[in-house]
């Protein structure tokens, strides 16, 4: 649906500003043309908005008439911009944190990504403690988590496919894998299950974990938790799929096998023989923990005759 008349712009802008959505309206006048910038101040980088968009527009003083394409290609300094003409998408763009620039005499509008979300710094891992492994753990920032994986895997076959899950939260979910290593059927199945999720909101990766399991009542989950970027990169290099969820500091790794739950964070960095010996000790310890108590009760209560005098 294209906006072709001035009244359509004005009516649309008035409607948005009257709905108490917390959207700010910045009105500019350049060469007798009215220009409107819509944005949410709490999640907008105001310095970028002012210096890279508003300032160069106001300083434009050439004889050529200003329009959306002129603004996009010759005026603003923002690096992540695109042009659209669908009126129904404007509100969604604004709610995602993007700034929308509208001219009253143009059927197109400009979308600039100047999102800024407050986030904590990358800290030490709390769940996956390690002696020799990396100390950078995922945070709640979506782009920061993706950058940690990109930093470690520089393969041209690395695939990062983005989905929006949740009818109201529209949470960004990234499915990360290496195209020539991961099983195509499994990748397709994971993506299909993500597309079928029908829920109001996703606020943590645990929501995704429940929806992509084969059976929620299964004693051994098929999806593992990943807090460290090096463990996520290792899983991807082994052909697994890593799922990063916006707003969560825990990523998901799938498929997960039982023996992987016995891994230690330093097994991949220690001497091979020591790592194998440590894993064997863990297996023995699990068997002892599961059987010795019951064997003791059985012998003392039901077969005391096998005890020495």
Structural features:
5-stranded antiparallel β-sheet; 309 residues; disordered N terminus; 3 domains; 36% helix; alpha+beta; GerA spore germination protein; Spore_Ger; membrane
List the helices and strands and how they pair.
Blueprint: H1 6-18, E1 24-30, E2 33-39, H2 46-58, H3 68-75, E3 81-84, H4 90-95, E4 99-103, E5 109-112, H5 142-152, E6 158-165, E7 171-178, H6 184-195, H7 205-212, E8 224-226, H8 229-237, E9 241-245, E10 251-254, H9 272-302
Antiparallel strand pairs: 1-2, 2-4, 3-5, 4-5, 6-7, 7-9, 8-10, 9-10
Helix pairs in contact: 5-8
Biggest sheet: strand arrangement? 1-2-4-5-3
Taking pLDDT < 50 over at least 5 consecutive residues as the criterion, the unreliable ranges are 1-7
The sequence of SSEs as H and E is HEEHHEHEEHEEHHEHEEH
Could you tell me how far the N terminus lies from the C terminus, measured between alpha carbons in angstroms?
Answer: 92 Å
Strand content: 15-25%
What sort of overall outline do the alpha carbons produce when their principal axes are compared?
Answer: elongated
Number of strands: 10
Largest sheet: 5 strands, antiparallel
Rg (CA only)? 27 Å
The helix fraction, in percent, is 25-40%
* Number of domain modules: 3
Q: What is the typical, i.e. mean, pLDDT?
A: 86
Number of helices: 9
| Helix/strand class | alpha+beta
GO cellular component, one term: membrane
InterPro entries: Spore_Ger (IPR004995), UPF0353/GerABKA_families (IPR050768)
Transmembrane segments: 280-302
Protein name: GerA spore germination protein
């Amino acid at each position: 649906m294209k906006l072709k008349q001035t009244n359509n712009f004005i009516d649309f802008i008035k409607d948005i500003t009257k709905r108490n959505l917390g959207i700010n309206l910045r009105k500019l006048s350049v060469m007798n043309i009215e220009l409107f910038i819509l944005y949410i101040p709490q999640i907008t980088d105001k310095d970028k908005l002012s210096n890279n968009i508003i300032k160069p527009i106001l300083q434009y003083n050439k004889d050529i008439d200003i329009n959306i394409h002129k603004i996009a290609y010759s005026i603003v300094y923002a690096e992540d911009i695109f042009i659209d003409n669908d009126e129904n998408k404007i509100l969604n763009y604004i709610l995602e944190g993007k700034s929308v620039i509208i001219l009253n005499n143009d059927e197109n509008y400009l979308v600039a990504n100047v999102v800024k979300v407050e986030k904590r710094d990358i800290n030490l891992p709390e769940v996956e403690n390690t002696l020799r492994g990396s100390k950078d753990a995922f945070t709640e920032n979506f782009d920061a988590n993706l950058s940690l994986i990109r930093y470690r895997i520089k393969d041209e076959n690395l695939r990062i496919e983005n989905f929006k899950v949740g009818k109201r939260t529209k949470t960004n979910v990234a499915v990360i894998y290496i195209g020539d290593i991961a099983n195509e059927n499994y990748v397709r199945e994971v993506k299909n299950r993500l597309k079928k999720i029908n829920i109001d909101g996703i606020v943590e990766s645990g929501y995704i974990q429940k929806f992509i399991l084969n059976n929620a009542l299964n004693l051994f989950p098929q999806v593992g938790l990943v807090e460290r970027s090096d463990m996520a990169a290792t899983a991807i290099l082994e052909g697994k799929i890593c799922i990063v969820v916006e707003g969560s500091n825990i990523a998901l790794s799938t498929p997960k096998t039982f023996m992987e739950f016995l891994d230690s964070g330093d097994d991949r960095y220690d001497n091979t023989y020591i790592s194998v010996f440590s894993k064997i000790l863990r297996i023995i310890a699990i068997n002892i923990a599961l059987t010795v108590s019951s064997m003791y009760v059985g012998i003392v209560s039901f077969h005391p005759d096998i005890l020495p005098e």
